[in-house]
Amino acid sequence: MPPGAWGPAPWGPPGGAEPRQRLHPLSPALHGAKSLVVVIAGLSWSTLSRVGFGWFAVLVAVFVLGATVLSVVSWWNTGYHVVGRELRVHEGLLWRRTRAIPLERLQAVEVVRPLLAQLTGLAELRLEVVGGGKTEAPLAYLGVNEASALRQRLLAVAGRAPTPAPTADGAPAAPATPGVPADLAPAGRRLHAVRNQDLLVSQLLTPQAFLLPLGLAFVVAQFLSEGSWSFIAVASTLTAMAGVILQPVRRVLDDWSFRLDAEVDTLRVHNGLLETRVQTVPLRRVQTVGVTWPLLWRMKGWLRLRLEVAGYSAGEPDDRNRPDRLLPVGDARTGELVVAEVLPGVRLDALPGTPPPVRARWLRPLSRAAVGAGLDERVFVARSGLLTRRLTLVPYARIQSVRVTQGPAQRRLRLATVHADTAGGTGAAAVDRDLGDAWALAAELTARARAARRADRSS
């Protein structure tokens, strides 16, 4: 890009090395717009009533000007460049800081486009590093073309440049998403695209949606009986109702236009309405696959698929940064197709499983028949849940440790629980097994895990 063009500007080459690049010149404006919302919310309407509209506007202008100046100064002193096999990010004015991200530990580079970034043609890069506690070096913001070029370069240096997978019938790969550069859109074989209508209906078939009319009726009845409410009562009621409906609304916004594509050894997920995301799921780092059948979804034969991926930022406060979405809603046939793609050879409709012994009914009087465990040729299977049924699949090669635990009640009934732990965190558990069967299951899991890891290393 020539000097002065609308994009990252070069910044003083240090000793003949590659010059540092600045973020897009509109980055301070987008950060300032975020600060504007925070400032107005912080000042609140009580400040407006005390000082009047004129002084309130002056306060907002002062805070916004200050936030904008700080954003510009931060942008001016922030730069990045690739040095060898490292991405170095420089930032800070009084206290200079340089972060060096080794690209050999790079797991994926995710492209995120919040609403303001979509309106201005910008994008944000977020780096996922193996063993990282959170998303590394988020570069906000770059032009879409610059973000695309930098993403491809980082993946190439890391040896993880994506290669589109051919389709089974030799047809061309899935077309790029309209309005998104080809290498930012999912570019492999299209597995599934969730209909937005199904997504909306799935969130209407939730306890929150069914309880919302009852909540509204209660609020109206209380208001009619009291005659009038104080500001605190109205605010607290609205806050409680917003908390009830926030989760399904957020899921709709996050999973809007959900598309899943397969490439060589990876899956690409594209989703989001107000904030679009393109995320990469490395299949070799998938630790578990979880299948969920919510109670109200079962009348339509729907299920939900989620997974755990090692190396992603499990400590990230925002769970949307973690690529755990595999299928937000779909029928049984679609679920089987996606599971077979992630775990080749595993059939969702033919998984083994046996319930706990009859004496476990003293611990699980209602749910004994709903829990169970089994050993498939390729995965450890654990079932749980009464109203919401859950199934967890753990590939043997991903099992890090096997534990047998007993609680006081289990000891009296000669029962035990077998845990298969993974690097992703939760793993799976076979609960309330006969004590002898539990130790035999633990020994078999350990043997299969060792054999699978040896086969994985030799392949």
How would you summarize this macromolecular structure in one to three sentences?
By secondary structure, the chain is an alpha+beta fold. It is built from nine helices and 21 strands. Mean pLDDT is 81; it is low at 1-7, 163-180 and 182-186.
Descriptive notes:
- This protein is an alpha+beta fold.
- It has helices at residues 27-76, 115-120, 144-158, 196-204, 207-226, 231-255, 332-342, 408-412, 435-458, and strands at 10-11, 20-21, 79-83, 86-91, 97-102, 106-113, 122-129, 136-143, 189-193, 259-263, 266-271, 276-282, 286-293, 302-309, 325-331, 372-375, 379-384, 389-395, 399-405, 415-422, 428-434.
- The strands form five sheets. The protein has a seven-stranded antiparallel sheet, with helices on both faces. A six-stranded antiparallel sheet has the order 15-14-13-18-17-16.
- The protein is globular and about 75 Å long.
- It starts with 9 loop residues before the first strand and ends with a helix.
What is the percent of helical residues?
A: 25-40%
Q: What is the succession of H and E elements? A: EEHEEEEHEEHEHHHEEEEEEHEEEEHEEH
- Unreliable segments (pLDDT under 50, ≥5 consecutive)? 1-7, 163-180, 182-186
Derived structural class: alpha+beta
